[in-house]
Amino acid sequence: MHGLTTSLFSGLTTASLLFLVASGLTLIFGALRIINVAHGSLYMYGAFLVSSLVAASAGINVPASWMFWLALIVAPLLVAVLGGLMEVLVLRWLYRRNHLLQLLATFALFYILAGTGLLIWGGQYRSVPLPPVLQGHFMLTGGAAFPIYDGFVMAVALAVGLSMWWLLQRTQLGWRIRAAIEDPEMLAATGTNVRALFTGVFTLGALLAGIAGAIVGPTQSITPGLDAQILVSAFIVAVIGGLGSVAGAALGALIIGLFETAGVLWAPNFESAFIYVAMILVLAIRPWGLLGVAES
Fold it and tell me: What is residue 222's three-state secondary structure?
């Protein structure tokens, strides 16, 4: 039972990280109709920026624990700026072009950002030390231990999810984003600057990827290749939930997290196959995803 409880909470932690990445991916697709392969690069940059900022604390005589909290804010904002520049300089000119051309453009951005990251940070592994307040474990029911930092990751994902719900459902900006998803031409006819709105949506999606990358630093080694590792899982989550649905991204992340846990417990040698089984089962029933809308 201890192992089952620990694995379950570990799956929820994985689901939280996947939701943060996939929510930005599905938001961008929903509004801009672009499958952004470079989304994984934004996630990787968030992780590397946090590691660099925390490492820089030694040179400026600032406690690493203080710099950690500052880095959690600064790194996603820098990634958001990078995402905005990507949209303005490249993707803005491709909205009405062939989808294959859009996909090739984001692939090109993926490789450019991967190469740039390798030049900046090199190929060595990096790590981010935890601040004292997030170190250690707390005890679950039945005596199982659970890392405090994993609880922090889940709390961040919950806060982001609630913030996204409030933004999309309770604000004028959210109304415009949802209108852009449904009918961008009609939205433009109302006088809305759709081009600026699209830039804002892409920047918000990049911010979510940056947040995910920032908080993943203390949980694993940061190295080139993080972009490709997260991209496949994030796409699977978005497809299961329904491309364009943030709520679907949350549901898809939960399903993938639980399926990965089942794989670890029941078939460790085939653990990586379980997420593909989940995707096949969902798409066999609803090809457009659990909360997605069938394209006309």
Answer: strand
